[in-house]
Specification:
The complex is a heterodimer of chains A (179) and B (313).
Chain A (H helix, E strand, L loop, with lengths): L2 E5 L1 H18 L6 E5 L3 H16 L5 H4 E3 L31 E9 L3 H11 L6 E9 L11 E5 L7 E5 L8 E5 L1
Parallel strand pairs in A: 2-3, 2-4, 4-5, 5-6
Antiparallel strand pairs in A: 1-8, 7-8
Helix pairs in contact in A: 1-2
Chain B lengths: L11 H18 L13 E6 L5 H12 L3 E6 L11 H10 L4 E6 L4 H7 L6 E7 L5 H16 L10 E5 L6 H12 L3 E5 L15 E3 L2 H5 L5 E4 L15 H8 L3 H6 L5 E3 L12 H4 L6 H20 L6
Helix pairs in contact in B: 1-5, 1-11, 2-11, 5-6, 5-11
The chains are: A alpha/beta (179), B alpha/beta (313).
């Protein structure tokens, strides 16, 4: 097994700042933005993006614009892996109607998590648009899904593993390819 | 976990996990769209040989909210009244392609018999068997206590003191509750007339009281009243309803003597004025309707745990 660090702590911080700018630019401001992190690490990334937006746009209300979306019950591989932990979903506003929802996850791979997330979103309302922000896009999509905001495109082999470490959950902060 | 027949099928951690999952299911029940796709394509049969309102509806709603298909079977009006045996009834239903049987039966052990039978391949959930057990009722009561007393969606019930009052002898609710509450660390006491509290219950519970007022003086966190089951009163267990109410009913005056923090629970259906007064049942301390609401969430969690695995599609 070999480990190769592809993003270090500073790279990750820069990627988050850039993504936060891109999100606001594409949205023409911060109005009606709602960041939804997908557990586990997407939740922390969404929070960091929200804090980064707040730095540049003091009017941005982090409390009202940041939530989490658990997609476990909407997965298509439930029957193979039924024992995933179900965690709370928190939508800060009552309904998603008229919101521009930005889903945030750490790694985009097959696209199946995002498909589940799109299904989950439907049960909370009808957003104006749904965007996707990921720290790493490693390719190998199995569904017609792509990310709008990408920290780093990482061409990988299917047999490799991508490990994302964040200070919130791990000792260090890095993105590592495991072969 | 393939079946849920008894609280004894669950370890402490499994029970806590089920309660935690139930808390997530409660959130689903508060959404505009109260539906999850998790059990899409599974078929669940409500197999009820005994009358029920809340348990049957609760299981039916739970299964439907997880997108399973539900068929309701009631013994009355089925081929059972033509003399069809349990084995043949279940064989017939399973031949139509069924994944889970939710069984309510007047004989203790009916669910276990089906679960162990070579002629049945379904997952079996015990929804009340005779005077034996009613595990999902135990789970929903623990969920209610945990939320109301601790305000928490996690952890056990250590230190909580619960008094269960009434017809313990015939009560599957009392048994499932005693097993689960003690598994979760609570202290459980039974109270009732000596004809309706088996003396062998010590060991299953921590204390037995034969005097309700003496028990209430011990300041329990939870007082759970049981229904006087007219259908099982086939012998002279109590002299008459009025005397029972005076000695063991949660009357207005007994309710007034409770601490304002004591929870009043009842599994339903209630005999108002017999084991519980309307004032107590409709008070802010009463959790009776919460118990019903939590029942749907708990049953969703149980169905999900049993059916969301491979090989049961």
């Amino acid at each position: 097994m070999s480990l190769r660090t592809v993003l270090d702590a500073a790279d990750i911080d820069r990627a988050i700042i850039r993504i936060s700018h891109e999100i606001v630019e594409a949205n023409h401001g911060t109005e009606n933005l709602l960041l939804l992190g997908i557990p586990t690490r997407g939740v922390f990334l969404a929070k960091r993006i929200a804090n980064s937006i707040k730095k540049n746009y003091p009017d941005f209300d982090v409390e009202e614009s940041l939530g989490r979306l658990d997609v476990t019950m909407f997965r298509d591989d439930l029957s193979a892996k039924p024992n995933r932990e179900v965690t709370p979903t928190e939508i800060p506003v009552g309904s998603l109607d008229e919101k521009t929802v930005v889903l945030v996850d750490d790694v985009l791979f097959s696209g199946r998590t995002i498909r589940a997330a799109l299904d989950a979103i439907v049960s909370y309302g009808r957003p104006k648009a749904v965007r996707l922000a990921v720290l790493v896009d490693r390719g190998h999509r199995e569904l017609p899904i792509r990310a709008d905001y990408v920290g780093k495109n990482l061409p990988t082999s299917v047999t490799e593993r991508i490990n994302v470490h964040l200070t919130e959950t791990d000792e260090e902060q890095s993105v590592v390819i495991e072969q | 976990m393939r079946h849920l027949l008894s609280i004894n099928d669950l370890s402490k951690q499994e029970a806590i996990d089920l309660l935690n999952l139930s808390a997530q299911m409660q959130e689903v029940n508060k959404r505009d769209v109260k539906k999850l796709p998790a059990l899409n394509g599974r078929t669940v049969v409500n197999l009820f040989f005994e009358d029920s309102t809340r348990t049957r509806f609760s299981f039916e709603l739970a299964a439907k909210r997880l997108s399973a298909d539900v068929v309701n079977f009631t013994a009355k009006g089925s081929s059972v009244s033509k003399g069809e045996s349990l084995k043949d009834t279940i064989g017939t239903l399973e031949a139509m392609g069924v994944d889970a049987l939710i069984v309510r039966h007047h004989h203790s052990g009916a669910a276990l018999t089906i679960a162990n039978a070579p002629w049945s391949t379904s997952a079996v959930i015990n929804a009340g068997d005779g005077t034996h057990e009613h595990p999902t009722q135990g789970l929903l009561d623990s969920l209610t206590i945990r939320q109301r007393l601790n305000g928490l969606d996690q952890g056990d019930l250590s230190g909580v003191r619960v008094l269960i009052v009434g017809d313990i002898l015939h009560s599957r609710v009392a048994r499932s509750n005693a097993l689960l509450l003690r598994k979760l660390g609570a202290k459980v006491s039974y109270c009732g007339p000596s004809t309706l509290v088996p003396s062998a219950s010590l060991g299953l519970v921590d204390e037995i009281y034969y005097d309700f007022d003496q028990a209430l003086a011990q300041n329990f966190d939870v007082v759970m009243m049981l229904r006087i089951q007219a259908e099982r009163m086939n012998s002279a267990f109590i002299p008459n309803a009025k005397e029972y109410s005076q000695l063991f009913g949660l009357t207005d005056s007994r309710f007034d003597s409770l601490s304002s923090k004591t929870l009043v629970m009842h599994p339903g259906p209630m005999n108002r004025g017999l084991e519980i007064s309307s004032k107590a049942a409709d008070s802010a301390q009463s959790t009776i309707l919460e118990q019903v609401a939590n029942g749907v969430a708990v049953r969703m969690a149980v169905l999900y745990r049993l059916l969301a695995q491979e090989g049961k599609a």
